[in-house]
């Protein structure tokens, strides 16, 4: 019996060269070329930033080197970020913002990540200035965020311009998460609203500026002053005898700390003016910062009622153990009542 003829086994279709080897090779080369371009760009950025003139190496992220022609990017030198004064400044401002916004149930953990879109800045300004801004509550688009930020910053500028503040920030710098610009803004707000905080003095950071010109990245380094002295920042009065006394004998002035909670000041005014101060008007054993500020503020009101001039010191300064401020308050009392029998 003859067997049925076997049908030929189908041969696999031969792929054209450009569909097989050359196609795969081309795709691989294209991927390698793109990867090499990104690598070269990052290396170019690092070479520009980490030039022999650079005081320290900077960790460059890809987005920091992908610049358009004449575009500029700034970043804080890592050594400056590790400076204790810089860290203290950031912490003080963070704590202040969170204290102001505690009733809003807002917690800020990182300045550049939490403030860049204008949402927190809006709430902060509204709380500090006691106003309501006409902006959308929540916006996710970049255009919407910048529009909100523009409105918030215009309101800030309206407050600061009459007092001659230098405005060292912009919508683009804040939205671009430029920490130096954000710090300048917050320090100015703290000074304008006389925040009950003590900013560290003479905080300066080294800033790396990268600019793209003719296809190449160029870097430079500048020093950026974030804070000066407390007196200059808070608009204090000129140096006087108390400054000299403080400079030469600060260890002998710790006794004024006893007035920091305002209790002694209130009781002292009652004794000097010969009246009893009802206990429900102040906190006899204050526990919080706000209660102490209330006591000192109440003591200042009693001083005004007694015919004294308005104290130049702030209640917050006395509570924060500012010795010169407390001495000035006590000296005013002394000059008025020194001849009272």
Give the tags.
341 residues; elongated; 3 strands; single chain; mainly alpha; 14 helices
Description:
The protein is mainly alpha-helical and 341 residues long. It is 48% helix and 7% strand. The protein has helices spanning 21-49, 78-81, 84-100, 111-115, 119-129, 142-160, 171-175, 179-192, 230-233, 241-248, 263-273, 289-305, 315-319, 323-337; strands at residues 72-76, 204-213, 216-225. Strands 1-2-3 form a 3-stranded antiparallel β-sheet. α5 runs parallel beside α6 (142-160) and α11 packs parallel to α12 (289-305). Residues 14-25, 48-64 and 236-241 have low confidence and may be disordered.
Write the layout of secondary structure elements.
Elements: H1 21-49, E1 72-76, H2 78-81, H3 84-100, H4 111-115, H5 119-129, H6 142-160, H7 171-175, H8 179-192, E2 204-213, E3 216-225, H9 230-233, H10 241-248, H11 263-273, H12 289-305, H13 315-319, H14 323-337
Antiparallel strand pairs: 1-2, 2-3
Helix pairs in contact: 5-6, 11-12
